[in-house]
Design brief:
By secondary structure, the protein is of the alpha+beta class. The chain has a single domain, classed as GAF domain (Beta-Lactamase). The longest helix is centred in the first third of the chain and has 15 residues. The radius of gyration is 15 Å and the shape is globular. Belongs to the free Met sulfoxide reductase family.
C-alpha cells in the first residue's frame, strides 16, 4: 500500500503557481493548472476553478471537482456578486447568501476572488467547501495572491 499524497502548504501553493505560469503564457492553460494546484493544496475543498466573464455572464472555465453551473449572470450568486462588485466574497454559509446558486448541494462555504485586467473584470476564481466557515483571512490572502499572479498571463 502506498503512502497518501502529501498536500502542499498554502505558501508552497503561491510558489507552485509562480513556477507554472513562468513557463506558460496561455491564460486558459494556466487556469487549468492553477485549479489543480489549488484543489490539491487546500484541504476540505470540493470544487476549485474559474469562470470567465463573457458579455454579462460568467462562463465556466477550467476546474477541479464535480460538474458545475455553466453560465452565471453578472450579479447573481456569490460568483456574480464578486464579479459585479469587484471584491472578494468570503461566505461562511452559502445557504444564507441571497441568490446563492446551488451547483453542488454539498457545498456549504465559498470564496470567490475577482480576476482583473487593469480595471476590467475578466473572470473569477471560485472555491467551494462542504465545511461551513471553511475559508478565513489567511486563505483569502493566499488566493488573492494567486489571482494576481494568474492575471499577469491574461492577454
Amino acid at each position: 500500500m502506498s503512502a497518501p499524497a502529501q498536500r502542499i502548504t498554502q505558501e508552497d501553493l503561491v510558489d507552485a503557481v509562480e513556477a507554472v505560469i513562468a513557463s506558460e503564457s496561455d491564460f486558459i492553460a494556466n487556469m487549468a493548472n492553477v485549479s489543480a494546484l489549488i484543489y490539491e493544496a487546500l484541504p476540505q475543498v470540493n470544487w476549485a476553478g474559474f469562470y470567465r466573464l463573457v458579455g454579462q455572464e460568467l462562463v465556466l472555465g477550467p476546474f477541479q471537482g464535480r460538474m458545475a453551473c455553466t453560465r452565471i449572470p453578472l450579479g447573481r450568486g456569490v460568483c456574480g456578486a464578486a464579479a459585479e462588485q469587484r471584491v472578494t466574497q468570503r461566505v461562511e454559509d452559502v445557504h444564507l447568501f441571497p441568490g446563492h446558486i446551488a451547483c453542488d448541494a454539498a457545498s456549504a462555504s465559498e470564496i470567490v476572488v475577482p480576476l482583473m485586467s487593469g480595471d476590467v473584470v475578466i473572470g473569477v476564481l471560485d472555491i467551494d467547501s462542504p465545511i461551513k466557515a471553511r475559508f478565513g483571512e489567511e486563505e483569502q490572502a493566499v488566493l488573492e495572491r494567486v489571482a494576481r499572479l494568474l492575471e499577469r498571463t491574461y492577454a
